[in-house]
Structure formats: structure tokens, C-alpha cells
Design brief:
By secondary structure, the chain is of the alpha+beta class. It has one domain: Alpha-Beta Plaits (2-Layer Sandwich), CATH 3.30.70.1060. The protein has 4 helices and 6 strands. The strands form 2 sheets. A 4-stranded antiparallel β-sheet has the order 2-5-1-6. Strands 3-4 form a two-stranded antiparallel ribbon. The radius of gyration is 18 Å and the shape is globular. The two termini are 31 Å apart. It comes from Microcella frigidaquae. Belongs to the YciI family. This is YCII-related domain-containing protein.
């Protein structure tokens, strides 16, 4: 069954509007959404992201990558967080996206996550074979700091 990523995006105005909302209500609404996906057995994972000012962009345009603090380019469509869900197809993924309790100025981009079938022509590649083992190793392994 394919995995899809629901990518939460917002404009700077949308982000400002969401900060003005009652955070307790936002957490409760998102919690209910997450719980519905867990109960349906479709949720694989997900996380929210900190303010873009806390991050950096690594640019590979030059031989030596440069690091710039802050968001990538103009702040028109921030990547705020994501969910990964395992469902039958794009229609099922967009059905879940429509249920998300987001407000004006926010969007969910729905994209299929690639899997081994996307690289079938390269099945004998050493690193694709290693990746299959790495995925098995990572499943069930707690994250370390």
C-alpha cells in the first residue's frame, strides 16, 4: 500500500493568523485529527516544524555549500509540518487531507512517497539493497538524540 505525505504549508499571513488562535483549541483539534488517523490505521508518522527563523538553508549552488539562517527564499509558502499516511491511493490521501483542521491561508500538499518500485530498473544497485536493510533496521528502533 502506498505511503503519502501531507505537507502542511502556510503563507506568512496564514501563519500569523494561526498564532492568533487559541492554542488549546488548535492542539485539541489536531489531536482529534491524529487520533482519527490512528484509529483508522492509516497514520505512519508526522511532526510539526519550528519557526523558520530557528532554521537554516544549506545552498549547494557553489562548490562549497553555504549556510543562510532562516527560511528558504520569500516567505510565501512555508513548510510547517507533515503527516505520513498509508492508504490505497491519492483519492484516499486527499480525503484525509480534507479532514485536517486547518484554517484560511493554510494548505496541505499531498504527495506519494517513493518506494522500491520506483527504482526497479536499478534493483541491483548496492545502495538500494542496503537501503532495504536500513529501513528494516530503523523500523521499531527508537530515535537517539
Amino acid at each position: 500500500m502506498p505511503t503519502y505525505m501531507l505537507i502542511m504549508r502556510a503563507s506568512e499571513a496564514g501563519l500569523a493568523a494561526s498564532k492568533a488562535q487559541d492554542m488549546e483549541s488548535v492542539i485539541t483539534a489536531m489531536g482529534r485529527y491524529n487520533e482519527a488517523m490512528m484509529d483508522a490505521g492509516v497514520m505512519v508518522g508526522g511532526d510539526g516544524l519550528s519557526d523558520p527563523a530557528e532554521g537554516a538553508v544549506v545552498d549547494f549552488s557553489t562548490p562549497e555549500p553555504s549556510v543562510t539562517p532562516g527560511a528558504y527564499g520569500p516567505v510565501e509558502s512555508l513548510f510547517n509540518g507533515y503527516w505520513t499516511i498509508r492508504v490505497d491511493d491519492l483519492d484516499a490521501a486527499t480525503d484525509w487531507a480534507r479532514r485536517c483542521p486547518l484554517g484560511p491561508g493554510q494548505k496541505l500538499e499531498v504527495r506519494r512517497v517513493t518506494d522500491e518500485s520506483d527504482f526497479a530498473d536499478f534493483a541491483d544497485n548496492e545502495y538500494l539493497q542496503k537501503e532495504a536493510g536500513w529501513r528494516e533496521e530503523l523500523e521499531g528502533k527508537p530515535a537517539e538524540g
